[in-house]
Structures are given as C-alpha cells and as structure tokens.
Write the structure tokens for this entry.
Amino acid sequence: MEITHTQYKHCDLVKVKGRIDSYTAPQLAETFNKITDDGRFKIALEMSELDFMSSAGLRALINTQKVCKRYNRGELVLVAIPGNIHAALDLAGFIPLFKIFDDVLSAVGNF
Amino acid sequence: MEITHTQYKHCDLVKVKGRIDSYTAPQLAETFNKITDDGRFKIALEMSELDFMSSAGLRALINTQKVCKRYNRGELVLVAIPGNIHAALDLAGFIPLFKIFDDVLSAVGNF
Amino acid sequence: MVTRSFPGRYDSLAQIGEFIRGITDKAGLNNFAAYTVEMAVDEACSNIIEHAYGAEDQGPITCTCKVNTKGLTIILEDRGRPFDPELVSEPDVTGELEDRPSHGLGLFFIRQWMDEVEFEFESGNGNRLTLYKKRTTASTKSTRQK
Amino acid sequence: MVTRSFPGRYDSLAQIGEFIRGITDKAGLNNFAAYTVEMAVDEACSNIIEHAYGAEDQGPITCTCKVNTKGLTIILEDRGRPFDPELVSEPDVTGELEDRPSHGLGLFFIRQWMDEVEFEFESGNGNRLTLYKKRTTASTKSTRQK
Ligand SMILES: Nc1ncnc2c1ncn2[C@@H]1O[C@H](COP(=O)(O)OP(=O)(O)O)[C@@H](O)[C@H]1O
Ligand SMILES: Nc1ncnc2c1ncn2[C@@H]1O[C@H](COP(=O)(O)OP(=O)(O)O)[C@@H](O)[C@H]1O
C-alpha cells in the first residue's frame, strides 16, 4: 500500500494505491487521524489505483466518516472507486453513506 | 477556440483550447464577465491545450485580473501555460501579476 | 489440489492473496468472482489471526485449494480456539451512519460472496473453514474465451 | 517569394496564422522563433483591421513572404489610413496591476520579437509594414538536424 497526502485550502486529498488489508489498514487510519486531529474534516480519498480493500479498510472509512460528519464539520468523499471495490462497498451498504466522485478535481472542487 | 467552464464550490475553472486572437478573444472575455457578473472572482484558466494567444488575449487576462483582485475578493490564476505563451506573458511583464500552477488540481485546491 | 502454509501474521495476507489469485486464475474465474474469493479468504485469515489465535505469530494458517469443473474449494485450517459462527449476528448494513458498526463485516462478506461456507472444529485438529465458490456461466464463458 | 491576400476581417487571422506557420516551417525556424513571427504578424494584421481600416471589411491585407539563407521577410500591405509608429510610446510592463494598460501591447510585441520592423506609407499605394526575422543559430541547427 502506498499513501500520498496533499493538503489543499479547503480539503485534504489522500491517494491510496495497492492493497488495504488488516496489515496495511492501520496506516490509512493513521493518515485520516492525523488530518482530523489537525481540525480538518473535509477529506477526499482517491482510489483509482487501489487493487484490494478488505473490511479492515471499510472500518477505517466508516470510523473516519463518523468523525468528519460530526457537528456537520465535513465529510469523507470517495473518488474513482474501482469496480470490485465498489461492489464490496455496495454489499456493505456504504454507498448511501459517502459522496462519490469520478475524478479528484470534482471532489476537491466540491469542498 | 473552445472554452469549457466548470463551476466549483470556491472557484470557477475555465479551460481554453486552440487559438485566442482578436476574433476569438471577445468570447473569452465574455466567459470571464459572466463569472464576475455572478459575483464570483476566483477563477482558474487552464491553458495546456492553448496553441496561440495574441495581445487580445492578454487584454482579457489583465482586465479580468483587475476586476477579480479589486477589494481583495479573488484573483485569476493561470494553469499549465505552454512554453511559447509563457514567453509572451513574460515579455508583457504579466508573470508577477498572476499566480501560476502546473495542474488544475493545485489551482482549484488553492482557492 | 494445492496446499500451502503461511505464518499466522498480518503481513502474510498479501502473500495469501497472491496465492489465491494464482488459484482463481487457474480455475478460470472471472475477475469479479476471483475478487470475491480473494476477499473472503482474506477476511477468514484475518479472523484466524485476530480471533482464533488471538494475536500474531501464534500458529500457522494452512490453505488447501481444489479446483474441479463445477467450482473452487478452499480449506483454511488453524490450531486456534474453536468458534461457533451461529452465535454471530448479521451486521446492520442499512441504518444511519451513527448506527453502523465498524466491526462484524468480515463474516458477512464471507457468507454473502461464497456459495457454501462451513466451519468445523475437531479437538486436537483445530478449526477447518471450507469455502466453496461455484463457477458462474460468465466465468465458464470467460475461461472458454481464453 | 509567396504573396497572398486576405479579407480585412478578424476571422481571417486564423488563416493568416496558418499561412505564416507554413512559411516558418519552410524557412526552418525553430518552434519559438516561428511563434514570435506568427504573433507579430497577427498583431500587425489586427492593427490593420482595427486602426488602419478602422473596421472589418474595409479592404484586403496582402502578405508577401521571402525566405533566404539569412532569414525571413514578411511584408504586410493595406489601403487604410497612414500611421506614424514613432508617435506610439512603449507600454508600461513593470508597474502595479492597476497601472497596467490593457491596450498598446501589440506594437511592443512586433518590435521586441522581430529583428527589423519598418512602416512605410505611399499615398495611392497605402501602407507597407516590413517584418524581418533572422535565423538564429538555434534555428539553423534545427534545420540541419532535419
Ligand atoms: N476464526 C474465528 N475464531 C474465533 N472467533 C471468530 C472467528 N471469526 C470470527 N469470529 C468472531 O465473529 C465476530 C465477527 O467477525 P467478523 O464479521 O469477521 O468481524 P470482525 O472481525 O471485524 O469483528 C468477531 O468479532 C469474532 O468474535
Ligand atoms: N496599422 C495601424 N494603423 C493605424 N494606427 C495604428 C496601427 N497600428 C497601431 N496603431 C496605433 O498604435 C496604437 C498602439 O497599437 P498596439 O500596440 O497594437 O495596441 P492596441 O492595438 O491594443 O491599441 C493603437 O492604439 C493605434 O492608435
């Protein structure tokens, strides 16, 4: 797994590549925590080069979404979700819980 | 010349392709005017596919920059400027007057 | 039939995933079917490390794969504590954000995505989880196209 | 030597640009040198329509191009009103944003980017603007590389 984090004026962009499983998910959770600990709650997660995400990754997403949406201070949005991962998010009932964008520009521009 | 305009939460992105000369520059000026007449003064101009820009285009840029920067309400930033056009902007002394970004994401993210 | 053993550690998961992708390729499963198998196995192995062994490096995970014309069977064995999956209730996948549990999705994925799932415990022999995935028409077709 | 005439209209500018690119290509100018010639000619033709003719469709723009080993000469002719470029002062290209003029850059580009610029007026024959661009070492080199 490879994580890139870019801070923009109104939001943070996290790009994750490779594989999110129980071994790597803690790093993703930590990246999200560092951002929200900074008082920043508008986050876009770019997933176009993500190959695999287990429920450990879903856990990081839902926990971060809860923190971000509290007091209406922001939200985590998902960008460029690969097909198989979209099916997993769908089965887990996550689709209604996250705004989804096709590309980072619209995601960052939405904040 | 082909113009695409996308409105984001905190800024407007204008992408211009092809040729800006005395024939086409009025369309670009009109696009900018429509945005500023709307009370929106944060504009990014994406130029990566711009082939040519005469002083008629420079005129549209400087006029719009004056309107945008007034009362500190915003600015026009330039994105992905092709080499020849950069040389023309430089000769006209425009480089210090505009923030320049390599890609639209950083430009939109900066607003 | 292929059998391989992996250390019961989270950093084995990527290798297990690779191993499973090799098997699903050979079985000619389509891309999505292969993904569901990889994910089910990953969830099961995470659970073995976290719940059956209770920690990393407590024992191995043995993975046996059998391919036949009807489908793919994967057997995961460990020497951890026994487990009755009947006691685990389905997670809420429809409620409001705040009501959503962050745990309990792993077993749900395994059950939803595999065609048959069986947990067995034999004292002295440990746990055995059998996962079976049918070939779908689509996957058979995609095999033929190769 | 090539001569072509274009209607004195702003929508001729793209065709004039294409014509000039054909010439700079043949002359083997490098990409940037070619761009400066295209821009100088575009500025000059815009001025002919706007200032010499005072409006569109008042007369033609005739463009004559000569290439030799030393460089490229472009002659633009119109039948509009005469013009003394000595009376035009240089634009401010260093001041604060608010002090910058939005007009007056065209002539500046022509003068900066061409190696020689000459305006002539003969009553009865109209205006003639001669632009000369030297081949630079770089452009000669890029020609040789072809
Ligand atoms: N192999 C196992 N051994 C023991 N307990 C297990 C095993 N797999 C699952 N469990 C139990 O079932 C629960 C649900 O598992 P699961 O759906 O994978 O979610 P999670 O692991 O996120 O809690 C676990 O919390 C655990 O109590
Ligand atoms: N061909 C021409 N015929 C008559 N006047 C001209 C011509 N070219 C330029 N001028 C005069 O010189 C001024 C400066 O020209 P220029 O630098 O091209 O800027 P602009 O056309 O934007 O005013 C013009 O405003 C005009 O008064």
Summary: The longest helix of chain D spans residues 31-52. Chain D touches chain B at residues 10-11, 13-14, 17, 31-32, 35, 38-39, 42-43, 46, 49-50, 92-94, 97-98, 100, 102-103, 105-106, 108-109, 112-113 (CB under 8 Å). Chain D has a mean pLDDT of 92.
